[in-house]
Amino acid sequence: MTPQDMLGEVRNGMLLQRVLKGADALDVKDAMTMATRNGAKLLGYREAGKLEQGWLADIAAFDVHTLGYAGSLSDPLAALLSAVFPSERLYDRETDGSLSTKEDSRE
Question: Is this structure's pTM higher than 0.90?
Answer without folding.
Answer: no
